[in-house]
C-alpha cells in the first residue's frame, strides 16, 4: 500500500492551476460572446434565431464559393420574412401569397429595385433546405442572383414542421 503525502506546495499549485484554467475558460467564453454580439449588431441579425443565422451563413458560404458577394442581413426584410413564415404556419401550406404586397413594402422601406423570395416547407435541416433550393432552378437563381441584401425566417408549426421564407433584394 502506498501513502501519499500532499504538501502545502501541492495545494498551492493545484489552486493556481484551477484559477488559471477557470480564467482561461471565462475569458475565452466572454470574448466569443462579445464577438458574436458585435457581429449581430453590425449585421442586423440580433432578432434572428441561431437556426436562421446558420442557414443564412450557409447561403453566404455558397455565394462566396461561386464568386458572389455575401448578402447583408436586413432587419426590415426579416420582419416581412418572419410574418410570411408565420402566415404559412397558420395556413398549414407553402405559399407565396401576398408576395407583391411584401415586395412593395420592402421597396418603399429600403429603396430596393428588385425583390424576390424563396419558400420551403418541412425540411429537417438547414443543409437539406439549401440543397433543395439549389436543385430548383428558380430558387437557385434567387440564391445566386445579383442581390445585396436578404433576410430569412424559419418557423415551426405545432406538429414540428418547419416553414422557411427567404427574401432577397438589391
Assembly state (oligomeric): single chain
Structural class: alpha+beta
Averaging pLDDT over every residue, what do you get?
84
Task: State the end-to-end distance.
Answer: 77 Å
Give the biggest beta sheet: 4 strands, mixed
Q: Which residue ranges are poorly predicted, with pLDDT under 50 across at least 5 consecutive positions?
A: 23-43
- What's the CATH topology name? Pathogenesis-related Protein p14a
Round the Cα radius of gyration to an integer and report it: 23 Å
Number of domains: 1
The CATH first-level class comes to Alpha Beta
State the CATH architecture: 3-Layer(aba) Sandwich
**Tally of DSSP β-strands:** 4
Gross morphology is globular
Approximate strand percentage: 5-15%
User: How many DSSP H or I helices?
Assistant: 6
Task: Briefly characterize the structure.
Pfam families: CAP (PF00188). The chain is an alpha+beta fold.
What does this structure look like?
This is Cysteine-rich secretory protein family protein. It holds the Pfam family CAP. InterPro entries: CAP_dom, CAP_sf. With about 170 residues, this protein is of the alpha+beta class. The chain has a single domain, classed as CAP (Pathogenesis-related Protein p14a, 3-Layer(aba) Sandwich), CATH 3.40.33.10. The protein contains six helices and four strands; from the N terminus they run ααβααβααββ. Strands 1-3-4-2 form a four-stranded mixed beta sheet, sandwiched between helices. Helix 2 packs across helix 5. It is globular and about 75 Å long. The termini are far apart.
Amino acid at each position: 500500500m502506498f501513502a501519499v503525502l500532499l504538501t502545502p506546495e501541492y495545494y498551492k499549485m493545484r489552486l493556481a492551476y484551477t484559477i488559471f484554467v477557470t480564467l482561461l475558460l471565462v475569458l475565452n467564453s466572454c470574448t466569443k460572446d462579445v464577438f458574436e454580439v458585435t457581429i449581430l449588431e453590425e449585421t442586423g441579425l440580433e432578432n434572428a434565431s441561431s437556426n436562421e443565422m446558420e442557414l443564412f451563413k450557409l447561403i453566404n458560404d455558397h455565394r462566396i464559393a461561386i464568386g458572389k458577394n455575401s448578402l447583408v442581413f436586413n432587419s426590415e426584410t426579416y420582419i416581412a420574412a418572419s410574418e410570411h413564415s408565420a402566415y404559412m404556419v397558420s395556413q398549414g401550406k407553402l405559399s407565396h401569397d401576398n408576395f407583391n404586397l411584401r415586395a412593395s413594402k420592402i421597396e418603399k422601406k429600403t429603396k430596393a429595385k428588385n425583390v424576390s423570395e424563396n419558400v420551403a416547407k418541412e425540411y429537417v435541416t438547414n443543409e437539406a433546405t439549401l440543397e433543395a433550393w439549389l436543385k430548383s432552378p428558380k430558387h437557385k437563381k434567387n440564391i445566386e442572383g445579383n442581390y445585396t441584401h436578404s433576410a430569412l425566417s424559419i418557423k415551426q408549426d405545432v406538429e414540428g414542421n418547419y416553414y422557411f421564407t427567404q427574401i432577397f433584394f438589391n
